[in-house]
Predict the 3D structure of the following.
Amino acid sequence: MLRAMAEFEKSDIEWQPLALTLVEYPKGDLWGKFFAITSLAPFGIGSGFITLILFRRDLHTIAFFIGTLLNELMNIILKHIFCEKRPLSRGNLYNEYGMPSSHSQFIWFFSFYVLYFFIFRLHHIYNNNVLSIVGKVIIISSCFMLSLIVSIGRVYLEYHTYRQVIYGGIVGFINATLWFGVVHRILTPLFPQVANLKVCEMLMIRDTTLIPNVLFFEYTKSRHEARTRGRKLAALKPVR
């Protein structure tokens, strides 16, 4: 009896998929599958942010991540202001509006912020050789290519109209410009004081503004430390 009642209660439950990560595409359409996969790029970027913050704990990375969150918050506000529907109704999978496209706004915000970061933050690196310049061009070009692919994919899969995607890109560009200006002009000079706060010292949050090449700095420091510790361990070994 109890089992039958439990089964009856379960049958009344309405199940709904998590629309945040669910992407539909026409069955057998390889381009559709490709665009569906690339439309998950914002989630990969978000996971990368969390990983970098946990392991790097750099104030610039944290500020960049806060900017993406503010960008997403503005997208939610704009969607409820315009209340424009998506081009294709998918039942109860997507209850939110489509203007502007959150994917387009996020990915263009990310790409333009990366562009500004390379232009204004990394321009002073002393090893601006050909290989370094080519590397920067490849990274920036890859970001903008991904942004273009994601934007086209949102229209191809009929999640957004061209207009919704274009406006999303414009809002993302404006937000990236404004937020980078705030970080570069207002927040960056305050980073040394913030890094010296007790809570930041406890969490090992650091400021790398004055280090021109963080990757090279960490590589040389860790290599030097490993060699020093290796010599100390070798000196402690008993002589036979």
Remarks:
- The mean pLDDT is 84.
